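Summary for the funding panel

The consortium committed to producing paired sequence-structure records for every protein in the target list. Below we show the first two records in order, beginning with the earlier of the two.
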Amino acid sequence: MKFVLNKTEVEKILDVMEKFPQESGYKFDYIVSGLGYTLDMSVPTMVEGVSGEFRVNITGVESW
């Protein structure tokens, strides 16, 4: 699948990556609907010995 990121989205992704420098992998969920798309970024992380994911909305329905 091919999609285009705008400058604001790239800057937000880089900001999240800078806040989690110890992580080496990121997961992106790109969902297309009839009106537009959403893009979420998940960062695998560990807090207090419990592993999980930190999910960030990069682009949501507010941008439609």
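The next record, for a separate protein in the list, is shown here:
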Amino acid sequence: MDERILRESLSAACHWLVDIAQVVGETPPEGVKLRHAHTHWRGAIMGEYSVKDRQWGFFCPVWHTGQAVKALVLAHRVLQEDWLLAGARAGAEFILGAQVSAADDPDAGLILAYEDDPAKVNTSAVLEALEGLLLLGDATGEARYSDAASAAARWVAARAYQGDGLFVDSYDPASRTFAPYRYGTRGRPLAEDAVLLQVATRSGDARLRAIFLEVCERLLRDEDPPGNWINYSPCDPVRGNLHPRHAYWWGRPLIDAWRATGDRRYLACALRCGEYYRQAQRRDG
């Protein structure tokens, strides 16, 4: 495909994120459905839109804003246009505004990534917000973005990790407790964006690297069917429902594990995840 067409498409997609989906004021536009316990909204990405009702809403704004920050920074590498970093900065400020920053707070470093429950934090959503901060720190030279990501990663490792490659989800900041067995299992093997490995590589934190590799080993043990993990929610082994999230969020980081260790078992599993998507693709693409 012509490079010019690809660049135009990339620019148009990012303009949609910044010009349409991103909140520019202190509060979202009138009529937008709010159900998460955030106290500020500037920079957040609206992620739910009903074409039928012409109604915007939010679903886990921290997670989706983090992914938008990542997209905008990566697009800036190609297009080299300042507005892309401006949009990424606005999104990052929303995320940093949702982080517990007081050093004497027991939850210092936690990012309040509310998702399914409007006042409870999902561990996976915290992790999914971090790579954009790391990349923005690299792009701007401002350490506060990567420092915030590192603090959040360490909170997850200290509070949510259960050992044996599993993290518990659904944290209640009010009671400082996790909901037990929220998904019917002891936890989930969250490898999201390989952020624990990324922070470990930047900081030399051997424990974060060890946890990431324990998660990867768990993924190898529990893979079922090839390229996915039906025994972990939001998949449903009783109904035989497979959710596509796992093949990406858990499959792609296995490439990072292979690069970090040279262990080709990780690469082989990542390739099976790619094959899962290839088999799931519709004939029209």
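Regarding this second record: The mean pLDDT is 94. The CA atoms of residues 149 and 238 lie 37 Å apart.
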